[in-house]
Amino acid sequence: MVASLRRFLENEVAQQRLKIIKFYEKYGEEATKEAFGVDRKLISKWRKRLKENGGRLEALVPHLFSYPRCPKINAHIERYNRTIQEEFIDNHVDIIHDKRLFHQQLADYLIFYNTKRIHKSLNKKTPIQFIIEKGGMSQKSLSYTSY
């Protein structure tokens, strides 16, 4: 079923949809509908997206948007944006017009944010410590930075 594709990563979703399109071309609508629960209309939509985007797989990845000025819809992202605004942008207004310097200092801050700054929501751990403890990445994958 198409709904079960949500568990895949974006690249896997695109690859799976491409396989469904090829299956459709080889076996037709009935077999595709029975095997994947996908009808001709959806296949046509995916093919159109592929054609419009030069055959790039990203065209088959669903994009989800939230409504503007609706913080309850995605509270985690809104809180992150507020933290960046309060802890970095408000303190660097003087360099905001120098794109290169601003981006460099923002990148440094984001490294600090993810590797040194403790987060209450993560049981007073940094995000990188939290991910490593949960088995999301190995210690070997850390790169050397200025922090």
From TrEMBL:
InterPro entries reported for this sequence: Integrase_cat-core, RNaseH-like_sf, RNaseH_sf
Domain Integrase catalytic stretches: 1-135
Pfam families, per database record: rve_3
Listed GO MF terms: nucleic acid binding
GO biological process, one term: DNA integration
Entry protein name: Integrase catalytic domain-containing protein
Organism lineage string: Bacteria, Pseudomonadati, Nitrospirota, Thermodesulfovibrionia, Thermodesulfovibrionales
